[in-house]
Amino acid sequence: MSKVLFAPMGFTRYEVDQTLPARFERLLAKSEIADMVGGKTVAIKMHVGDRMTYSTIPPVFLRSLVSFVKEHGGDCFICDHGVAQRQPQNRGYTEAILGCPVLDDCGHLQKYYYTKEVNFRSFKHVDIAGYIHDADVLIDFSHVKGHGACGYGGACKNIAMGCVTTRTRQEQHSLEGGLEWDGSACIHCNACVEGCNHNANGFSDAGEYWVDYHNCTLCRHCLKVCPTGAISATDHNYEDFQQGLALCTKTVLDTFAPGSVYYLNLLTQITILCDCWGLTTPGLVPDIGLMGSTDIASIEQASLDAIKVENLIPAGLPEGFPLGDHGHLFERIHGKDPFVQIAMLEKYGLGNKAYELVEVK
Ligand code: SF4
Ligand code: SF4
């Protein structure tokens, strides 16, 4: 059973000492980070958001982390995929504010990476971002939120989609699927489009059926209403994407020596979609706090366990959004079981989902 440090939001008095940034400093002091970073190059991987996003990690936490790493002898930088195109300065992610460089992890021209071959369906290449590959220590600092393609975005997604090139991101997305259309059987009655509650399907100008698997909850209404059986299910589904994320994460983590990776999950402003959408919607549940662990499966499990269906704030969903009736809140929203990702992390030997929560107040 792995230890997951947990700094909660709850407070009893109006005191600075009871705020989350203050508790974060105490969490860092209790973590293994101080022992990892001395004399090492430390990559702090975060999602810098995009356009109008404002729910990404606030600079106050990053400044504390950078100071802590430096105080303990680490030489750190903050990084993400495609930083230059994502206006990081709009959210305060600059060297002047955070105290260390903010870098594109594949280099400014996105040409600095190391390729490892994998073989899972259409996923063949993990192009590991050069600056991630070259670092001695990785601190994977994630903002937890929902994700259309896999239900949940946390520590695993932050690595799999953010420590690699665009080619590797695309190969992972190519694993999405689940529906097949037979054009020769289609009579273009449009029942499948009218029957979809998620704006996930349609026809191109050329009359070809398309599915947006990000929005698709794999409810199969389109399949059931089709009068000619032109739509069918394939053996290829969202679980492949989750497995791809775990495989990619393992391949990236394999470049680090044992005991050189720490995970931090921020559970505030937990939105329905990933920060890359360039927007922030109201939180789905009340803010929860911040977690830290050396075990990726444990921290992901603890984070998901803390996000409870009964705490749903309806304003966090688009008006009239149809919720599913079973599973985790993210499964009810996106139609994808987020725990599959954790099972896949365990399958690849990346930790153990059993955890002990240790409160840091
Ligand atoms: S499976 Fe459901 S969500 Fe997906 S395209 Fe069909 S009707 Fe829409
Ligand atoms: S419901 Fe079936 S037949 Fe009608 S448009 Fe959709 S795929 Fe074609």
Give a description of the structure:
The protein has 361 residues and is of the alpha/beta class. It folds into 2 domains: 2-174 and 238-359, 3-Layer(aba) Sandwich (Rossmann fold), CATH 3.40.50; 179-233, 2-Layer Sandwich (Alpha-Beta Plaits), CATH 3.30.70. Helix content is 29%, strand content 22%. The chain contains 13 helices and 16 strands. The chain has an 8-stranded mixed β-sheet, sandwiched between helices. Strands 5-6 form a two-stranded antiparallel sheet. Strand 8 and strand 9 (151-153) form a beta hairpin. Helix 1 runs parallel beside helix 3, helix 10 (238-253) packs across helix 13 (339-347) and helix 11 runs antiparallel to helix 13. Bound molecules: iron/sulfur cluster (SF4) (2 copies). One iron/sulfur cluster binds at residues 195-196, 198, 200-201, 211, 216-222.
Topology:
Blueprint: E1 2-8, H1 20-30, H2 33-37, E2 41-45, H3 59-71, E3 75-80, H4 95-98, E4 102-104, E5 113-120, E6 123-129, H5 130-134, E7 137-143, E8 145-147, E9 151-153, H6 155-160, H7 166-173, E10 179-181, H8 191-194, E11 201-203, E12 209-211, H9 221-225, E13 231-233, H10 238-253, E14 261-267, E15 289-293, H11 296-306, H12 329-334, H13 339-347, E16 355-359
The structure holds iron/sulfur cluster (2 copies).
Residues 186-192, 209, 225-228, 230-231 line the site of one iron/sulfur cluster.
